[in-house]
Amino acid sequence: MSNRIFAVRYAHRATAMRSDNFYGPSDPHDGPMPMDYFIWAIAGDDGVVVVDTGFLPEVGDRRGRTTTADASQVLTAVGAAPQDVRDVVLTHFHYDHAGGLSLFPNARFWVQQQEMAFWTGPYAARPAIKHSIEPADIVELVRCNYDGRLRFLDGDGAMAPGVTLHRVGGHAPGLQVARVETGDGVVLLASDATHYYENLQTDRPFGVVHSLPDMYAAFDRLCALVPSPADIVPGHDPLVRERYAAVSPDLEGYAIEIRPNRS
Fold it and tell me: What pLDDT shows up at residue 136?
């Protein structure tokens, strides 16, 4: 299997604190714990699959997130020019994962039925819930459905050679993760099933919760899907940039190639 995996870092939140990133009582010695924002690209023999679409700069500005790169340009640099992408996986519909749909005019979007049902259902507009999404993104997804551009999964399924999707829920009702087979082994793009390595390593979920039991079950599922926890890639951890090499010197800090752990 010749899949190659790239992480495109397009934004950053320098003001995030440890108390933001763990569920439950806050650490009395609270301190900074910055957050990165990524879009993922999987380059295979049959084309490129993009995982998540990020958010647009104006949304980031409004929410206090700093855009660090033009995602379209960096994706193009790693061989995933957005206009040429035919398949996009949306791990869930939160604003930072489903906000750049317009960048992919020719793509179909792979989503979980449970996620779509929730965000078009009776509880999505409750104040404590709706802050996680941008209503315009949900409206655009409904349009995509009527245009025949959504591919629905109800649980687990294959969507490309060597790429399978697995619904885990927890952080979002239909959160799904992507398991990718490469020539060197398996990598699991965990998205927000674990925002940081530390969430999983210390068994402490992130602070935004749809179902706490499902978040813990998701931790167990992640570990069952790969030979080693070292091959689980979290959704927002700046350490990803330290554990994997940049694609090239000129893309340092913006594009990283994710390879299986071989130790």
Answer: 98
Instruction: Confirm if 43 and 85 have CB atoms less than 8 A apart.
Output: no
Alpha helices in the chain (DSSP H): 57-62, 71-77, 113-119, 127-130, 135-146, 197-201, 212-224, 240-243
For the chain, the first-to-last Cα distance in angstroms comes to 20
As a dihedral over the C-alpha atoms of residue 41, residue 248, residue 230, residue 197, rounded to 10 degrees, the angle is -80
pTM: 0.97
* The predicted structure's pLDDT at residue 261: 85
Residue 119's DSSP bridge partners are: none
Q: In the chain, what are the domain boundaries?
A: 4-258
Architecture per CATH, domain 4-258, reads as 4-Layer Sandwich (3.60)
Radius of gyration of the chain (CA): 17
Asked if residues 144 and 164 have their Cβ atoms less than 8 Å apart, the reply is no
User: How much is the average pLDDT of 90-94?
Assistant: 99
